[in-house]
Amino acid sequence: MGYKDPMLVPGALAEKVVLVTGGGTGLGRSMAEYFLSLGAKVIIASRRREALEQAAEEMMRAQGGSVLPLACDIRVYEQVEAMIEAGYQAFGTIDALVNNAAGNFVSPTERLSVNAFDAVIDIVLKGTRNCTLALGKRWIQNQERDRVVLNIVTTYAWTGSPFVVPSAMAKAGVLAMTRSLAVEWAKYGMRHNAVAPGPFPTAGAWDRLMPGDIPQRLNVIEQIPLRRSGEHQELANLAAYMVSDFSAFMNGEVVTIDGGEWLQDAGQLSFLDKLTSEEWDWMEQQIKGARRS
Ligand code: HXC
Ligand code: NAP
Q1: How many Å apart are CA 193 and CA 250, to the nearest integer?
Q2: Atom 21 (ligand 2): residue with closest C-alpha?
Q3: Rounded to two decimals, what is the model's pTM?
Q4: Ligand 2, CB within 6 Å, residue ranges
Q5: Which of ligand 1's atoms lies nearest the C-alpha of 167?
Q6: Within 13 Å and on the Cβ side, how many CA atoms surround 5?
Q7: What letter would DSSP give residue 228?
Q8: How many secondary structure helices (H) and strands (E) does the chain include?
Q9: Which atom of ligand 2 is nearest to the CA of 208?
Q10: Which residue ranges form the domains of the chain, and what is each CATH number?
Q11: Which of 3, 77, 156, 188 is catalytic?
């Protein structure tokens, strides 16, 4: 067994209804399909109805079970309320929300218009706010307990990052919401947590952040101490654990899964990794010499 294998026991999510925004593509789809294989009923929601319907069909063909595809622009609160209502009509409840939908692209900030900022912030920050608020209010009103929100953020939610400033601002806001509601809404039987993935290849992210041969030209993998990108299954394993009852005491946490990427240049001496063994011999002599003088 390894990190590419499913981790949770079969049936770990039986009786659960899980809503995954952006669940028709990329990481959302990988998480949704794994939840389905663990017995969950899954709702996938995003803007493109046809893409969602195709993804739902493929998932059910592969895993069995029920996937409900719902077209919804999470930027529009009324659409989010209608989507949640349709989920309740179909399955009677929603036990967990995975706020995974996002928009992003790289650009020097001085090239961005106000519209460009809003295009990202409206999806990531306001869209996540819309889904959490609409479902959270419903859970509270219905006195439904043991409910979970899992937010997909990034490590630059706390470090910040050049060239993705709108996304960094929005993800930082989502992380602040995660920690705030973990405290405020715990009394209603809700848990709020986050996952911060490092680089996991998906068409959506790669086309907008690292198009063409940029990954090879800029040696992106060299920025990751473990010298590889993430496997979708290892993120799905973590997310499944975090929406399941196995993580019942985890609340307000952000779990990083990035091969050590965000810490790579945080340590002041990371650059010493470039030294050869002979150069380390020389370094050792110099340092010992300095101690005697
Ligand atoms: C500068 C740009 C731009 C670019 C768009 N704009 N792309 N400006 N450089 N590359 C500007 C436009 O000119 C316009 O401003 C404004 O942004 C809105 O553009 P639209 O195309 O009308 O936006 P919209 O149709 O709403 O699309 C939103 C989107 C798009 C975010 C731009 O890419 C999208 O729908 N993405 C969804 C999926 C996605 O992004 N997945 C990746 C997630 S990866 P003006 O002023 O001209 O009107 C991720 C990884 C995180 O989050 C961490 C990785 C390390
Ligand atoms: P992706 O495939 O492009 O996923 C983004 C999804 O969001 C799409 O399914 C898209 O579907 C949906 N979406 C965008 N705008 C929407 C809106 N207004 N309403 C509803 N849905 C909307 O990218 P991904 O790489 O899998 O990213 C998934 C998550 O992981 C994101 O939160 C991202 O920030 C995070 N992440 C990814 C990486 C990585 O390396 N891949 C690293 C760190 C964090 P429609 O176009 O159909 O609406």
Answers
A1: 8
A2: 46
A3: 0.97
A4: 21-22, 24-28, 46-48, 51, 72-75, 100-103, 123, 127, 152, 154, 197, 199-200, 202, 204-205
A5: 52
A6: 6
A7: S
A8: 11, 7
A9: 3
A10: 17-292 (3.40.50.720)
A11: 156
Whether 34 is catalytic is: no
**Which residue's entry shows tokens 């929005």?**
170
Reading the block at residue 264, the tokens are 């790579």
Residue to mutate (ligand 2; options 25, 50, 122, 221; most atoms within 8 A of CB): 25
Ligand 1 binding site (Cβ under 6 Å of any ligand atom): 102-105, 107, 111-113, 115-116, 119-120, 154, 167, 204-205, 208-209
CA distances from residue 22 to 26, 40, 108, 127, 288 in whole angstroms, order as listed? 8, 17, 26, 11, 57
Per-residue pLDDT of the chain (293 residues; tens, 9 = 90+): 999 999 999 999 999 999 999 999 999 999 999 999 999 999 999 999 999 999 999 999 999 999 999 999 999 999 999 999 999 999 999 999 999 999 999 999 999 999 999 999 999 999 999 999 999 999 999 999 999 999 999 999 999 999 999 999 999 999 999 999 999 999 999 999 999 999 999 999 999 998 999 888 888 899 999 999 999 999 999 999 999 999 999 999 999 999 999 999 888 898 898 999 999 999 999 999 987 66
